[in-house]
Amino acid sequence: MSVVPYKDKDGSKREQVAEMFDNISPKYDLLNHLLSGGVDIYWRKRAIKLLRKQQPKVILDIASGTGDFAIEALSLHPEKIIGVDISEGMLAVGREKIKKLGKQDIITLQSGDSENLSFKNNYFDAVIVSFGVRNFQNLLAGLTEMNRVMKSDGTCVVVEFSKPRSFPFKQFYNFYFKYILPLIGKTVSKDSSAYTYLPESVQAFPDGEAFLEIFKKAGFKNTKCIPLTFGICTIYTGQK
């Protein structure tokens, strides 16, 4: 059974995730940087650097949220970045950020479902997603869609939380994720479920080699995983 944010409500995981992100969107960026100690910025920079050699011109940012990963991808000097997300609340925050940067001509954020993309086959030079695949209702379906819309010589870069496995960091991380993070998240965002869902969804997510197996099933080859910061986060790459 898939992990959902609001256990006392009906509705699919997709619907509940959209509602959750709408609820926390005003405080999302603040909490992201606060709860990770700002290291999430480094993770995104590291992931985007992996695309430098390819120099993609047209990029799709899946589960774009408030647009942080799309904004980081500007360092690649692309012609176009399209960000897709199911939460209008998150997209509204992202559009304001992009407007302040004066980059509306390059980055477009639009509402859309990652598991049913509206783009034609073989359209994007690269597909990127940070901290989004964990929220897919059907992981294989979402990854397969990402593969479909990407060109045959393209690269997909996925950044996602993972589970540290070494002592004592594993124990410290689990305590922080289970007790400290939900308390801070609830206090700041005023949504008691969102930051309880986060650790639960990370625990349930097939990380490392398990993710690579699903990545390959979705059609990706030359797959790699790069653990970061004691294994809290992992970058996955694959080609079509």
From TrEMBL:
Q: Which domain of life is it from?
A: Bacteria
UniProt KW keywords: Menaquinone biosynthesis, Methyltransferase, S-adenosyl-L-methionine, Transferase
What's one GO MF term for it?
demethylmenaquinone methyltransferase activity
Q: Cross-referenced SUPFAM superfamilies, in alphabetical order?
A: S-adenosyl-L-methionine-dependent methyltransferases
This entry's Enzyme Commission designation comes to: 2.1.1.163
Question: Which reaction(s) does its UniProt entry say it catalyses?
Answer: a 2-demethylmenaquinol + S-adenosyl-L-methionine = a menaquinol + S-adenosyl-L-homocysteine + H(+)
For the keyword Amino-acid biosynthesis, the answer is no
Any one Gene Ontology biological process term? methylation
**Which Pfam families does this UniProt record tie to the protein?**
Ubie_methyltran
Which residues participate in S-adenosyl-L-methionine binding? 66, 85, 113-114, 130
* Pathway assignment: Quinol/quinone metabolism; menaquinone biosynthesis; menaquinol from 1,4-dihydroxy-2-naphthoate: step 2/2
Ranges in coiled-coil conformation: none
Instruction: Name the job this protein performs.
Output: Methyltransferase required for the conversion of demethylmenaquinol (DMKH2) to menaquinol (MKH2).
Query: What family, per the record?
Result: Belongs to the class I-like SAM-binding methyltransferase superfamily. MenG/UbiE family.
Q: What is this protein called?
A: Demethylmenaquinone methyltransferase
The record lists the organism as Dyadobacter psychrotolerans
The opening ranks of the lineage are:
Bacteria, Pseudomonadati, Bacteroidota, Cytophagia, Cytophagales
